[in-house]
Specification:
With about 230 residues, this protein is α/β, with parallel strands linked by helices. The chain has 11 helices and 6 strands. The protein has helices at about 20-35, 40-50, 65, 70-80, 85-100, 110-120, 130-140, 165-175, 185-195, 210-215, 230-234, and strands at about 5-10, 120-125, 150, 180-185, 200-205, 220. It has a 6-stranded parallel sheet with strand order 3-2-1-4-5-6, sandwiched between helices. Helix 9 links the parallel strand 4 (about 180-185) and strand 5 (about 200-205). Helix 1 packs antiparallel against helix 5 and helix 4 (about 70-80) packs across helix 5 (about 85-100). It is globular, with a radius of gyration of 17 Å. The two termini are about 15 Å apart.
Length: about 230
């Protein structure tokens, strides 16, 4: 690293939370709602969203993997959901917020973030989920008091892969983007980091991204954030 890392901006789903363990049932509930109870349509919406029918996993780069709630809702409306966008988006957001109760973290997030804070690291979270869902996640897993910055798709900084969330975090933390590491599980995170001038792009394999694509797009590719401290500081 040319510049010491002073801030870390984390993605949420697939990075702090195991994507497939956390989101599989949530995506099904959301699709069933969007389909108005029509099971064949719900299956179709899941496929359009990126669910692989053979593996039951969400494909890398799909709208379910990396899209905002608005983008997911629009894709489903285009595929046959009977709702209007202004109706479906808040309904899906509500299901996503309810999913916080059953989300599965990749490690003890409270202990992890407190170790980073003890190192003097400024901590941020930038997610394609809504800001309220991120804050609910922070409260549930006991790290709300040590995270400095939170941004969702609805926080006014633009969606990934645009660099707005990264630049907002840099401005908040009074850091240069080159002093910030971005940690995420998909190409949207890596592209945001590159476009925003982040000092380090760190990919993790606890989400939807494939190893081959993430290794090519990142400076570091780790099994999970459990390896982050050793990779950056030891």
């Amino acid at each position: 690293m040319k510049t010491p890392i002073k801030g870390i901006l984390f993605d949420k789903d697939g990075t702090l939370l195991d994507y497939h363990l956390s989101w599989a049932p949530i995506n099904v509930r959301a699709a069933e709602l969007a389909a108005g109870g029509n099971k064949p349509l719900a299956d179709h919406l899941l496929a359009v969203g990126g669910l692989d029918g053979e593996t039951c996993l969400v494909r890398s780069g799909s709208v379910l993997a990396a899209g905002t709630t608005t983008q997911i809702a629009q894709a489903w409306i285009d595929a046959g959901s009977p709702f209007e966008l202004v109706e479906l988006t808040p309904l899906v957001d509500q299901i996503f917020r309810e999913g916080v109760a059953t989300a599965v973290p990749v490690l003890d997030l409270s202990t992890f973030f407190r170790r980073l804070k003890a190192r003097g690291i400024v901590i941020g979270i930038a997610s394609s989920d809504g800001e309220l869902a991120i804050r609910m996640t922070a409260e549930r897993f006991g790290f709300a008091d040590v995270v400095d910055f939170i941004a969702g798709y609805d926080s006014g900084h633009g969606p990934k892969p645009e660099p707005g969330m990264l630049h907002a975090f840099a401005a908040f933390a009074q850091l240069r983007p080159a002093e910030i590491a971005v940690v995420g599980d998909n190409l949207h995170d890596m592209e945001m980091a590159q476009r925003g001038g982040a000092g380090l792009r760190v990919a993790v394999l606890t989400g939807t991204g494939r190893r081959d694509e993430l290794e090519a797009a990142s400076d570091l590719c780790l099994a999970s954030i459990d390896e982050l401290e050793q990779s950056l500081f030891e």
